[in-house]
Amino acid sequence: MTLHQNLIAGEWVGSDGVENINPSNTNDVIGVYARAGAEDAKRAIAAAKAAFPAWSRSGILERHAILKKTADEILARKDELGRLLAREEGKTLPEAIGETIRAGQIFDFFAGEALRLAGEVLPSVRPNIGVEITREAVGVVGIITPWNFPIAIPAWKIAPALCYGNTVVFKPAELVPGCAHAIVDILHRAGLPKGVLNLVMGKGSVVGQAMLGSPDLAAITFTGSTGTGKRVAAASIEHNRKFQLEMGGKNPMVVLDDADLTVAVEAAANSGFFSTGQRCTASSRLIVTEGIHDKFVAALTEKLKTLVVDDALKAGTHIGPVVDQSQLSTDTDYIGIGRQEGAKLAFGGETISRDTPGFYLQPTLFTEATNQMRISREEIFGPVAAVIRVKDYDEALSVANDTPFGLSAGIATTSLKHATHFKRNSEAGMVMVNLPTAGVDFHVPFGGRKASSFGSREQGRYAAEFFTVVKTAYTLA
Ligand code: NDP
After folding, report:
1. CA 14 to mean position of chain CA atoms
2. pLDDT interval class at 477 (50, 70, 90)
3. What pTM value is reported for the model?
4. Is residue 444 part of a domain?
5. Is a pLDDT exceeding 90 seen at residue 16?
6. How many Å apart are CA 343 and CA 338, to the nearest integer?
7. Residue 163 annotated among the catalytic residues of the structure
8. How far apart (Å, rounded) are the C-alpha atoms in residues 16 and 4?
9. Percent of the chain with pLDDT over 70
């Protein structure tokens, strides 16, 4: 099998590799991908540092053209790249193609942003002095990404980093090197100068750790677990570098008595179980008021019965496999914990066999859960959700906000009063009314509060806050 290598200083390098395995069929080896070590990370950082002065002063038309060419190729190859994504991560083919299109749209958006870089010119409070406020590139940016969005998350970090003139060292999650390699290959062929974008596939504990320890990284943008995020924060403070963290969630979906039942069930099924529940914006806490509780549970259970769990590439599959054995064990451990804690298993809970060996798990619904149970407080990151019964809207809001996390929150209601109040009073970074908690646009800010996020927002024009530094210049007329 061809070895897919790392890209360092414009050269494809690396001799030994690891197999990339399909979670829908563990006999299917997608490819062999080079594994970088700590020395490779250091060389990549040195290459990015050397490339920074020229790239940060490159013309905006050059940046625009490279990002646009990348967008066009990703969109033209959406079916093939989507298939690769579904094969390595396990989300269904339509979801994977959708994510690939999203990545293309993000590159397209930032291709446009490259042409719209702007500053401000103001009069000084002192006579005969002018003030200019400009944004400059930060320097070498380290990008560390998780496995659950193998093409969209790298896109929403790499595109703005390059757009604003930074150089990049990119370490994808070890489980999904395929999409990472493909996107870097496209950018490289689109004409990026040597060293501007470097790819170091390898273990987080080795390559990621080496990046955290480097004094030459001016910024790190990270998406992943809260535990690793804390390491990124500690190391970044030590090196006085900018950092941005997107971490876990325990997102609430409130369903009120006056909700449209169909809308509520569709939103809960989508948020809780699609993409195998492996989304930081998944809603794993379904907070339901008394009057609609039993009807909602019955309708959601009926809906879950119709969802097909199977090979991500098969037509008709609604839920693909869990990403690997380790995540599957985490999910089944939590199902055991939920039972021990006294929640009622209303649906699912079992691993299942299919034609091919893979990590298949039934969508799992608990009822009669409390917000104090571990299944309600800790992120499971699988197709597992729990219904919490509440008296009324006030209790629903209070339970929704009673969590260490604050990424996304949803409400199903036909009441304008409650929807408006929830939008204002939810302690989440993103609020959805009559929509799933997962599923966001690419041109507006993404991010959370509390333990879910740290630093400025990602995506849309708000990305400039992280990927640039502001300079204020005064000139005597
Ligand atoms: P991890 O934190 O384990 O991994 C994220 C990335 O960090 C991977 O590239 C990983 O490498 C790397 N890493 C691991 N250890 C270190 C280290 N010591 N130093 C530097 N880098 C390191 O999370 P997962 O990939 O398992 O992703 C799942 C988690 O991500 C979930 O908790 C989920 O909620 C969260 N997430 C949050 C999102 C958000 O926007 N808020 C979006 C998507 C996911 P390696 O793969 O080699 O371990």
Report:
1. 28
2. confident
3. 0.98
4. no
5. no
6. 6
7. no
8. 10
9. 100
Ligand 1 pocket residue status of 246, Cβ below 6 Å: yes
* Residue 228 and residue 312 share a domain: no
Range of the domain at 130: 3-247+452-476
Q: Assess whether 154 and 176 both reside in one domain.
A: yes
Q: Could you tell me if the CB of 108 is within 6 A of ligand 1?
A: no
Alpha-helix residue ranges (DSSP H) falling in 383-459: 393-401, 416-425
Return d(Cα 237, Cα 369) in angstroms, integer: 39
Residue 442 lies in a domain: no
Q: CA nearest 285: which of 215, 362, 390, 201?
A: 390
Which is catalytic among the residues 88, 99, 113, 246?
Answer: 246
Based on the fold, state whether residues 325 and 202 are members of the same structural domain: no
Q: Is the pLDDT of residue 212 over 90?
A: yes
Any ligand 1 atom below 6 A from CB of 212:
yes
Please identify, by atom number, the ligand 1 atom nearest to the C-alpha of residue 235: 19
- CATH number of domain containing 222: 3.40.605.10
Tell me whether strands 344-347 and 351-352 are parallel, antiparallel or unpaired: unpaired
Does 246 participate in catalysis according to the annotation? yes
Question: Does the pLDDT value for residue 249 go beyond 90?
Answer: yes
pLDDT, tens digit, for every residue of 425-434? 999 999 999 9
Find out whether the beta carbon of 26 lies less than 6 Å from any atom of ligand 1. Answer: no
Report the nearest-CA residue for atom 37 of ligand 1. Answer: 247
Query: Which residues are within 8 A (CB) of 327 and not within 5 positions of it... i.e. 6 or more apart?
Result: 278, 359, 381, 382
Q: Is 317 in the pocket of ligand 1 (CB under 6 A)?
A: no
What pLDDT shows up at residue 265? 98
CATH number (domain holding residue 411): 3.40.309.10
145 shares a domain with 58: yes
Residues 319, 296, single domain; the answer is yes
Q: List Cβ neighbours of 103 (8 Å cut-off, separation of 6 or more).
A: 74, 151, 152, 154, 155, 183
- Give residue for tokens 């604003």: 164
Does residue 152 register a pLDDT over 90? Answer: yes
Number of domains in the chain: 2
Q: Is the CB of 223 under 6 A from ligand 1?
A: yes
Residue range 375-422, pLDDT digits in tens: 999 999 999 999 999 999 999 999 999 999 999 999 999 999 999 999
Q: Assess if residue 270 is contained within a domain.
A: yes
C-alpha dihedral, 137 to 448 to 427 to 91, nearest 10°? 160
Residue 439: inside a domain: no
My answer on whether 164 and 271 are in the same domain is no
Instruction: Name the residue of 226, 228, 379, 458 to mutate for ligand 1: max ligand atoms within 8 A of Cβ.
Output: 228
Q: Are residues 229 and 279 in the same domain?
A: no
Task: Classify residue 319 by its DSSP letter.
Answer: B
What is the position in ligand 1's atom list of the atom closest to the CA of 171?
Answer: 9
Statement to judge: residues 158 and 258 lie in one domain: no
